[in-house]
What does this fold into?
Amino acid sequence: MNRKIIISLGVVVLLGLGIWYYAAHVSHKPMSFADRRKYALNGTITKIDGNHLTLHTALIESNVQGNNAVKADKIVDINADTAITKTKLGKPISFSEIKVGDIVTVYSAQDSYSKNEFTATEVSLNAPVY
It folds into this structure.
């Protein structure tokens, strides 16, 4: 009798571990590092409005006459999945530590070059240059 109970408990534990593993690792595949950083823009934060940043950036536009810097303002949406980091230390920081005037690099899986508004996967506060 005790042997059947022990075997039954073992089966239940193994099934539980299998379900946990599937839920944690297989059912939802996180975005790869390369996909999270597919597009990158550098710029200065000119406005913070709730969970949105306005980023003033200069994009390089190539044409027949050569390369031109095109200044653009982009609206960057920040959500719960957006990583906020400080590059010099490489450590996570809170969104509240980002201020207007900060120079940042914004990474996105979306085409941030052609869109005026996109969601950031990471905002990296750039270290000041001395």
